[in-house]
Structure formats: structure tokens, C-alpha cells
Amino acid sequence: MQNGDLIDLDVTGVAHGGIFVGRHEGRVVFVPDTLPGERVRVRLTDTRKKAFWRAEALEVLEAAPERRPHVWASAAIDRSPDERVGGAEFGHIALDAQRALKERVIRESLQRVGRLELPVDVHPAGADETADGTGWRTRVSLHVDEAGRIGPFAPRSHRVVETPDLPLATPAVARAAADLRGAAPGRIDLVQPADGRVRVLPRPEGGRATAAPEIVEERVGQRVFRVDAGGFWQVHRLAAAALTETVAESIRRTVGELDPDATHLDLYGGVGLFAATLGDAGGPATRVVSVESDARATEHAGENLAEWVGARAETERVDRFVGRLRADASERERERLSRGVVVLDPPRAGAGRAAVESIAALDPRAVVYVACDPVALARDLAIFAAHGYRVDGGIRGLDLFPHSHHVEAVAALRR
After folding, report:
1. Bridge-based pairing state of the strands 341-344 and 311-315
2. In this predicted model, what pLDDT tens digit does every residue of 46-80 receive, in sequence order?
3. Which of 207-216, 295-304, 326-335, 387-396 bottoms out in mean pLDDT, i.e. has the lowest?
4. For the chain, what is the HEC assignment?
5. Share above pLDDT 70 across residues of the chain, in percent, rounded to a whole number
6. Which residues are catalytic?
7. Burial class (CB within 10 angstroms; exposed 0-12, middle 13-18, buried 19+) of 64
8. Using N-to-C axis directions, what is the helix angle for 273-282 and 295-304, rounded to 10°?
9. pLDDT digits over 232-258, tens only?
10. Residues pairing with 314 in the sheet
């Protein structure tokens, strides 16, 4: 068969990345915009590989009971595949079924990549989540093409698709996006920090910042974090609080009381969110080091952690920092590290073998791993397991990205 051919496909599984799995005469076919239990008509888009093909869904022939009208009309299956927006791959699925699929993706990634059998559960971001899972994005990136069109990219492309609405965004961000006009080609970021006012940050192609970035404040409970308006902060309006509580609970469950005289590490620490979680668990004298490669984020982390006399923020790549500690730490520092807790929140690629092996060599009492990619999590947990660290209590998933395939997962490991 060739690209462009139409086939009818029974969908049986889900793959990481918001793609679903069907089979045609024994061959695996990956296709978006459907779900297990459906029969769909698809158009083949990539038949080059012997192992699998790719396709785009055109029509639902037999719908699964979990299918719902898409929360974002611009992404619905009744639109031409070329005109569908990306970023809401699960928007046609009931919310509880979305979370069940995310549990399945995490569990199957652990089994396939990590050879690990672990319980997994995925929960909403919090009690204040909207009933339909919309209105949560406080940060949105839109793109501007050469014709001046403004919108998200189509899935797996750099083609801008204009859309009249952004249902996953907070109402204020959605209104600000609707008012955008006449932007230069490139990107536009919309950011709504804790004060509620949306910042519009144009990022034209090839443009350079000519002014110091605005510093905004974000809040987790009563605690304030300073961060650049265009810097990294969790996207879901409830995410920072949900992750803080989940990490704190993981520490309590795994080690009980945190030893304030030990040395604790917050790796890939950003502006110090989890370093502050460690500080709150150990008290005002807690020794905690936040490590982050971005110098601006580290600068803010130093300010955000000022109330802890034993806290400091380091600008360095994590693999280099923990590798240097592994090689050069004094006997006294090693003893403190062995009584400490390491929290790591790596980017989508994961921490990687060098960083994980160096962390394990420091012999911390426990590790709390916050992951945004289940495959990278599975790989890194397998490396930790080979060095004597086992997951304590299973994987806690947080649905911080409703209607997309993304999911956050937290694992506590005990030596």
C-alpha cells in the first residue's frame, strides 16, 4: 500500500505521545484522534517502514463509549487533518478515561523499557480543577507565520493553524490571544502569573531581547517565588501546589522527618520550588543545594531560598555537578549526603545514565524523581534499580495537562 490509501482500522492500544495503535493485516499502524475500542477510517501518511505505518484519522465508523465531543472544535476529527490544531490529543475522550490511558502508558513504559512492575495511579491536579478539564493553561505559546497567521502548530508540524478560541487556556489568556494582531513572524508567549494580569511576550525570529526581562511573582500557598515572566514555571494553574504537596508527601512517607543537618539536593531546580519543599520539611537551618543550568533561574532561586540559612543555589549542569561531587566530596560531605534526600525534576529527556549513576554513588537516603516523560522515567528508574534503589509505594501520576497526552509522575526511591 502507498501513502494516501484509505483503510479501515480497529484500534486496540495507546502509545506514548498521544498516538493510538491499530493493526492492518498484522502490521502496526499508528494513528491519532481515536482511542482503543474504535473502528476508524484512516489515510496512510507514511508507509516507508516495514515494522509500522503511520496514518491520519478521517472518520469514526464505530465509536468507543468513552468518546466525547472534542473540547476544542479546532482539533475535532470532523475537520480536515491539515486544519486540526495540536496540543489537545485526548480532547475527544472522557476525563476519567484519559487518566486511565495515562496510567496505562506509564505502566507499559515501565514494563517495556525499565522491566519494572509497579502500581500506577493518576489523579487530577486538585479539587479546584474545572469539571471539564479546561481553563488551566496560564502559559501559552503561539506561532506567527510569514503570512501573519497567529495560532498553534498543527500536530507534528510547523504549520500555523488559526483558531477562534483556546479552551485549555485560562479565560484571561484566551482573551489576550484573541486580541493579537499584526505580529512579526516568530512566536508569542502569553503568561498569566499570580497577579492575574496577562503578559504578552513577542519573540520574533532572529530577534534579541533589548531590555531586562520583567520579574513576576508566583505563589504556592503563602510562599512567593520570583521568576522571569518568560522563564520556566509550571503551566497548569494548580500544578506547582500539587507537585509541592506530592513531593512533600513522598518525603514524609519515605524518610519520615528530614534531617536538617544532612545535605539535600534539588537537581534541575529552576527557581527553587522543590528546594523550598525540602526547606519546609527540614526547618530554617536545612542544608539544601539547588542546581540549575540556567543562570537567571539560579539567581531567582537564591532569592527565593533566602530564608534558609543553609540553602544555596548553584549554576551548573546537573550531570557535571553530581559527577564532581562524586569525585571530590570530602568524607564529611559524603556522610551528610548519605543522610540526605535528592529531588530531581529533569527535562523531557530524563536525567540519563551519567547523572543517575553519580546520584546513586552519593548514596542518598532517598530520591524523589519528578518526571514529565514516562519512557525517560522508566529508563532512569531501571538504572537506579541496578544501583540498589527501589521505588517505594508505586508511581503517583498527576494529570497536569488535561486533554493532552502529557502527564507528570512522581516516584520515591529508597536505598
Report:
1. unpaired
2. 999 888 999 999 999 999 999 999 999 999 999 99
3. 207-216
4. CCCCCEEEEEEEEEECCCEEEEEECCEEEEECCCCCCCEEEEEEEECCCCCEEEEEEEEEEECCCCECCCCCHHHCCCCCHHHCCCCCCCCCECHHHHHHHHHHHHHHHHHHHHCCCCCEEEEECCCCCCCCCCCCECEEEEEECCCCCEECECCCCCCECCCCCCCCECHHHHHHHHCCCCCCCEEEEEECCCCCCCEEEEEECCCCCCCCCCEEEEEECCEEEEEECCCCCCCECCHHHHHHHHHHHHHHHHHCCCCCCCEEEEECCCCCHHHHHHHHHHCCCCEEEEEECCHHHHHHHHHHCCCCCCEEEEECCHHHHHHHHHHHCCHHHHHHHHCCEEEECCCCCCCCHHHHHHHHHCCCCEEEEEECCHHHHHHHHHHHHHCCCEEEEEEEEEECCCCCCCCEEEEEEEC
5. 99
6. 372
7. middle
8. 30
9. 999 999 999 999 999 999 999 999 999
10. 291
- Per-residue pLDDT band for 331 (boundaries 50, 70, 90) equals very high
- Neighbouring CB atoms inside 10 A of 107's CB total 21
Q: Across the beta sheet with 341-344, what order do the strands follow?
A: 120-124, 390-399, 408-414, 366-371, 341-344, 263-267, 287-292, 311-315
- Of 216, 222, 215, 218, give the one whose Cα is nearest residue 240: 218
pLDDT band at 209 (very low <50, low <70, confident <90, very high): low
Cα(17)–Cα(312) distance, integer angstroms: 37
- 315, 292 in Cβ contact below 8 A? yes
Strands 215-220 and 223-228: antiparallel
pLDDT of residue 142: 97
As given in the structure block, the three cell numbers for residue 64 are 468507543
What length is written for the chain? 415
Q: What is the pLDDT of residues 70-124, one digit of tens each?
A: 999 999 999 999 999 999 999 999 999 999 999 999 999 999 999 999 999 999 9
Question: Does residue 1 register a pLDDT over 90?
Answer: no
Q: Are strands 19-24 and 408-414 parallel, antiparallel or unpaired?
A: unpaired
